[in-house]
Structures are given as C-alpha cells and as structure tokens.
Amino acid sequence: MTVYIDPPTWPGHGRMWSHLISDVSYDELHAFAAALGAPPRAFDGDHYDIPAESYQDAVRLGAVEVGSKALLGHLTRAGLRRRKRHRRTA
Predict the structure, then answer these.
(1) What average pLDDT does range 74-86 have in this prediction?
(2) What pLDDT shows up at residue 80?
(3) How is the chain split among helix, strand and coil, in percent rounded to 5?
(4) Could you please report the per-residue DSSP string of 6-40?
(5) pLDDT digits (tens, 9 = 90+) for 17-40
(6) 74 near 13, Cβ under 8 Å?
(7) Rounded to whole angstroms, how far apart are CA atoms 21 and 34?
(8) In DSSP terms, which residues pair with 24 in a beta bridge?
(9) pLDDT in tens, 44-72
(10) Are strands 3-5 and 64-65 parallel, antiparallel or unpaired?
(11) How far, in Å, CA of 80 to CA of 78, rounded?
C-alpha cells in the first residue's frame, strides 16, 4: 500500500495544488483522502487535487513525496491512469 503526493506546484483558483494517487487501487486512494479530510469533489478521475496547506498533513499520514513525473509513472505502471476525455463543442 503506497499513496504518493507531488509538490504543490499546480496553480488553480488562487491556490497551489498537489496530486495524490495510489499505486494499488482507487479504494485505497479514497480511504486515504477521507482520512486526510479531502472532499469527494477533489477526486479528478484518477487522483485527488490537494491544496498546498494540506500537503504536510498528507505526508504525516504516510503519503510518499515524489516529483510529478515519478507520480505519473507510478500511476501508469499501476494501471490506474485515466486520461481526460476531450469534450466536443458544438
């Protein structure tokens, strides 16, 4: 069981964000996110968006700090990567 988090370097909505993933299952990821206090709406298909102010809390709970490329590698190798579908516009 390993949950990974990348540094909060992703800007959005006036904040900086990290990505939280599991290399085992979405069930593990959802359980960890719930323990962290992340709302269900923070789940974005294959990861949770975690605000910078929650980064250290995630690490204290056991998330392993990795770079963004390593995080993506773990997610892909685990077979849990879900690419976003592009929406058609009319």
Answers:
(1) 82
(2) 87
(3) 40, 25, 40
(4) --S-EEETTEEEEEEEESS-HHHHHHHHHHHT--G
(5) 999 999 999 999 999 999 999 999
(6) no
(7) 13
(8) none
(9) 989 999 999 999 999 999 999 999 999 99
(10) parallel
(11) 5
